[in-house]
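Researcher: Next entry in the queue.
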Amino acid sequence: MKPSSPLPLSEARRRFFDGLPLPDHAVPASILHSWRRCLGLGLTASRPMYGERLDEVQLRLRCQQNADWLAVARPQVETLFDSVVDDGHVVIVADRDGVILNEIGHTPFLDRAERLALTPGVGWSEALRGTNAIGTALAQAETVLVRGSEHFLERLRPLSCVASPILDPFGQALGVLDVSGPPRRLGRPHGLRLAAAVRQIELALFERHCGHARVLQLADDAALLGTVRAARLAFDDGERLLAANRQALSALGLSWDDLGRRRFVELFGETLEHWQHRHGRGIASVACGQRLLSARVDEPETTLPATPVDAKPRPSRSARPVPTVPPADDAGLPPALLSQALKLLEADIPVLVLGETGTGKDRFAQALHAASSRRGGPFVAINCAAIPDGLVEAELFGYEEGAYTGARRHGSRGRLREAQGGVLFLDEIGDMPLPLQARLLRVLQERVVTPLGGGRPQPVDVRLVCATHRDLKRAVAEGAFRADLYYRLCHYPLRLPSLRQRGDVALIAQQLLDRRGGARRGITLAPELAQALRRYAWPGNVRELDNLLQTLLALNDDGTQLTLAHLPETLRGEMGGEGSGMVADDHGDALARQMLQRCGGNASAAARALGISRSTLYRRLGRGMR
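Model: Structure for this entry, 626 residues:
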């Protein structure tokens, strides 16, 4: 029997937007998943092209903020341009928010791109433009090809694009490289050239950021070691995994969340020191699952000189010029807050982060480390409330052999010394015992730490980030927190807003889903669930939302569209309807005003995005104006 002809794309679109089932492979899986994400965000195919264009000053500032990685990418962008310009295409560079920074290419198509707002200064995230190569590549963290009617918005049908995100060695998206042109002229060869250019850029970024570290290279063939196709993992002095490229994560079955957590011995069954003792700089074999790979360890370009005990600690050699790219924001954090914290950290001023439980203070600290000049150094976190009082001091300052019953045979360096050259994060510092507060203050003033049980004082060079949900000023008044330490830490406290204050919760939820692999697995939010997420009060803030999404990802198969029926029974009733009173009035009023502004004053679009009626929207807006 003759196989049936494939469903035309126009018919597939009609069925999708009418809510009818689609046959398998009617559209590429990445496109279908993106369409579903767009529906969950409240977009419609006929939506006008919302979003303002940056003026020249704003655009210039954006380019300056991304100048670090743009300079690394420029040679590959020019090479890619040379390979596609004769086909009538343009090469586009966008930042991590999907805002186009630059484009070069075929003049006639540049004119057409201008009419479609595909031009510098315009944002192309999925939330703004629906399914498109730039926004969808960022959402799915992979190369994406979008042709003609595969775009979610009708107005983008005259366009075909292929794009790939550019990631630094720490898993942070820096930007996007895109090739766009007329439909039917763009194909797989252009995607291959684009992917090759991105690999070269990411290799240059890896070498730039990890030259001070020991790097393990892996490849199927020893001849590939040292090339762009080799897997690379960087390790710090404590043999903790510091950075990696995508090939390494794939080869070892790791994720970006493993950075800073896994050690060499956990991955390969022996210490890096033992490996180097056996193999030196030679090539050896290593087992990665069922594969046997060739491996080589490259020594760092420079090493830190020993610092005399009585000398002032010198800045770490791993420090680099202050990065201009702000920390990654996947939970609606205000960019201005992130930028302020980064400036404080770079000036060696303790960063004190305040916020309700679950607002993501730990993630905020990790983002600061990843964006700072100390990204090449360790990130060491300690929760002052999670360690028994009697062990906090030993955990933080270290101890000599025999310092107390149960101590390790050879003692411990302590978390402060483990953070040498990097960032120390003290979570829940408001719960630190008073005697320990005095020792911490002394370390901050003298930059020297003395282990328990005696031993020689050791200089430390760390940057400090602290966090608490407590009112430290009240704790000082009650005698539960030292006033001198409070004023040493409280230079410029930064308060993280609650999840309710961060804008569209459904958009934040989709970003968190994408971060955990939901986009790659095709797991999306149904519109009714997105509306319920917007209405709920989220007393547990980002942690509550993230935990829920993580659980839903674990319970559901690839390609699932999450609905209210997928929620646990305890939440289903609370999220079930508009009249359930889930959002406090003041938060609902603020969210209504924010959404109206996001929708360019279009009340119908704002009400649809919030999952409420227009009359309810007007009532909230009127109440907020009183």
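Model: Residues 1-5, 303-328, 402-410, 577-587 have pLDDT under 50 and may be disordered.
Researcher: Noted, moving on.
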